[in-house]
Amino acid sequence: MGKGFFERVYEVTKQIPYGRVSSYGAIANYLGSRGSARMVGWAMNASKSNIESIPAHRVVNSSGLLSGKRHFGGSDTMCELLESEGVAIIDDEIQNFEEVFWDPSTELV
Question: Which of 50, 58, 63, 78 is the Cys-Cys partner for 72 at CB 3.0 to 4.6 Å?
């Protein structure tokens, strides 16, 4: 039996390198589900109940905003996790987004 969408999202998310970020849309596009960015977001929210550690904090919106931060318990947890990896953030926005953006469509071949 094939893997479900959430499981495939988790497989991609686990490959985002330390200190890099991807977007909901980029992951959906890589999985052949263009237009399913919201479903990737739902997968990130559900990942906290996953036995394996999923680096959901490394998935942001297409503008580099920490739009999913409310799902990390404390309001600054997502920001703190990214900053601990060297990602510069001001007012919930990644400052060097183009430099730290990781696109699975070009990185995973």
Answer: 78
